[in-house]
């Protein structure tokens, strides 16, 4: 397409883009951001550690601040990390970023998204892991089969249930476990009816539902009842377009 628009134009090579143009652009943008932050009085931070598809570890730090009456968000850094992400290590890595952008004295709030530290019990306690694994297996079975999805939708219509898809949780997001269990309980009658449909011909898969006991179901209901207030509290302080820091202490007091 480039040649069709302008045959005389020679686009830069990948090496030029990676090693010359992008670093130069980054240097200018970084300098502009540092200059902009000098005019800001208070900055809030969010930090998230994550893995790439190749299992490399990265840390991202984002600054949130108000300038000229508008809330702005700017990523300060995304960098590879090679040490175990314990609390002291993360604190040291974030401190280096703050010093680099000269905003150490302007920080008023820091939110670190690290599910393993914030809510370890949802994935580590055996009593929870056992019954949630049964539900997860059923959800995987229903989502993997296109016929199962079709049958489930039919049963939802017959039973007058919301035509919602099942949700599969993500290990690093505790709220996704809550959402998976909540949706499973909502759709349980349709899941039961679908499992008895002759078009789903694999008894070994249908047996997964039979392994779910009444006690497991009761634990699911108790879990949703317990975690709903924590989920809603999380939503209250997760807005991207409005200030939420002032809600933290009242919510904590209410939870206590």
Automatic annotation (TrEMBL):
Keyword Repeat tagged: no
Any single Gene Ontology cellular-component annotation: nucleus
Entry keyword set: Metal-binding, Nucleus, Zinc, Zinc-finger
Signal peptide positions on this chain: none
Keyword Mitochondrion set for record: no
Main location: nucleus
Protein localization: Nucleus
Source taxon at top rank: Eukaryota
Organism of derivation: Triplophysa rosa (Cave loach)
Molecular function GO terms recorded: zinc ion binding
InterPro entries recorded: RNaseH-like_sf (IPR012337), ZnF_BED_domain_contain (IPR052035)
Protein name: Zinc finger BED domain-containing protein 1-like
